[in-house]
Amino acid sequence: MENVSDKQFFIGLSLAPNSNYDSGVAVINKNNEVTLLDKLYSDEDIEFFFKNFNSIENSIIAISLAQDTSLLDGKWRMSAKSYKELSNHFEVNANNWTNRLTPRCSRFFHNLLLEGNCVFRYFNFQLRQALSLTPNYPERNSLDCKDMQTSLEIKYGFDLPDNMLPASNLEGILGAILAQNISRGADYKKIGKFKELDILQLENRLN
Fold first, then answer.
1. Cβ atoms of residues 78 and 84 within 8 Å
2. Which has the closest alpha carbon to 176: 66, 47, 38, 44?
3. pLDDT in tens, 128-173
4. Burial level of 151, CB count in 10 A (0-12/13-18/19+)?
5. How far is 8 from 113, CA to CA, in rounded Å?
6. What phi, psi does 185 have (nearest 5°)?
7. β-sheet bridge partners, residue 38
8. What 3-state DSSP class applies to 51?
9. C-alpha dihedral sign at 5, 123, 193, 34
10. Which residues contact 177 (CB under 8 A, 6 or more apart)?
11. Distance between CA atoms of 157 and 118, rounded to whole angstroms?
12. In whole angstroms, what is the distance from residue 102 CA to residue 123 CA?
């Protein structure tokens, strides 16, 4: 990723698998201030946010990869049984039932990249490990959220609300921190590609 050292805003989006769950978005500015926290639900909400963010061309955008939580329908559960003979008409990935990651909004994110914006994907859990914020409790429960929010306030000096933030917002902050670290020259590597966007990971654990 080139020419990112002069970017002024760092946007993290913790993407939910679908609109039934909240996707958390966070924005950090060059002065290390959390300037925006919000929850988005539908694909239209997500697209509206990025289309109306007035400094999008001056930002780095980090978007998490979400698990595909769709369920198999009855027909393909039966077809997938190991003892059933597979006919010539059997389609292995019918209804996308072997997908591990959801392609949600991927076309829109790719268009952001084609428009010249700095956009990449990341894994939330890998990022927590790289930032030395590995969960001490079951991930995303209330104790974990409280622990992560306190750690972010102490480690990065963020002025966060007194009430406990949703897990999606805290993960959005992590994505914004990753974008900020890349802007500052932190070592990272490309570990893959998903729907035309690079998946990035920090090379070294940050203490």
1. yes
2. 38
3. 999 999 888 888 999 999 999 999 999 999 999 889 999 999 999 9
4. middle
5. 18
6. 95, 15
7. 25
8. helix
9. negative
10. 10, 12, 28, 131, 156
11. 26
12. 13
